[in-house]
Amino acid sequence: MKNPQDPKSVEPxxxxxxxxxxxxxxxxxxxxxxxxxxxxxxxGPAAPAPRTGPQPKGTASPEQALLQDFLFLQLTDPHWGxxxxxxxxxxxxxxxxxxxxxxxxxxxxxxxxxxxxTQTTDDDALRRRRMKEFKSIVDELKIKTRYFIPGExxxxxxxGMAFREIFGETHGTFEHKGVHFVLIDNVSAAGSQIGAAxxxxxxxxxxxxxxxxxxxxxxxxxxxxxxxxxxxxxQDGGQAIELLxxxxxxxxxxxxxxxxHHFKTGNxxxxxxxxxxxxxxxxxxxxxxxxxxxxxxxxxxxxxxRDIREETGHVAIEELPFAPSATPTSSPx
Length: 333
Prior knowledge:
Layout lengths: L15 H8 L3 E4 L31 H5 L4 E5 L14 H14 L6 E5 L9 H15 L7 E4 L2 H4 L5 H7 L4 E5 L2 E5 L12 H12 L7 E4 L18 H8 L5 E5 L6 E5 L2 E5 L33 E6 L2 E6 L14
Parallel strand pairs: 2-3, 3-4, 6-7, 7-8, 8-10
Antiparallel strand pairs: 1-2, 5-6, 9-10, 11-12
Helix pairs in contact: 4-6, 7-8
């Protein structure tokens, strides 16, 4: 996994305009919320400290003492190379998102792309070309620390071979300001699974992480059984959840389902982000899974926008329309 040098840390308290700008295209996360992440508290001041006994006023819990507040972004399922009626603006949606992020005054510490970077193809040469085009586009980001994991569109046809050539290893870990981050590949192995070798690697990695240290996991598919008949699950994801459940503060961010979704397994919070290409229906809401039709009259097209407001110690999130650029940006040749 390629790990560029971290940029200089910035003050994470954004203006309302900056937050709306970023939330229009991706998920924004404040480290202080990883202790008790919830759909209404993804950005904002520190959550109350868990208490196991009397604490002197002003004393931080061990979990809070580990954390230095920071922001990072999640962007998922851009499907570069897609062309079709479900997003007639696909040739510049990703480019517009990168520009919007760059126009924001704040520079988040890093960005994670959680899979399906490109649209699937059985043509090996076309797959590599799309990945190189995608990389060229995101290289324009002013956020210089970036992490990538594959989706089944990227890695399914060749077991992740092309992805590894262009982006590096498909899974890995990194530490950032008191938080342990894990990137899981649950798409390269056949059968929608993580695989025994990677689960063994995860076991050894987590054994070195203190139980009280916050852990954040990125995966493409949901680790739990959201809707298996639509392939919205990971066959051996329960084993990963069991390994993670021994840690006190665990948050999982994923993509794949092209919609916002929040779920909890034991003490683990799971949060899905909207796609940057087209939305999919709610789990089991229709007989057959298919992209939702493009609505030319809509401003958001199911691609996301969020209002942010502070409410008694946390910041609530409300969905707002996503306004695409008025002038399409040319895609790379």
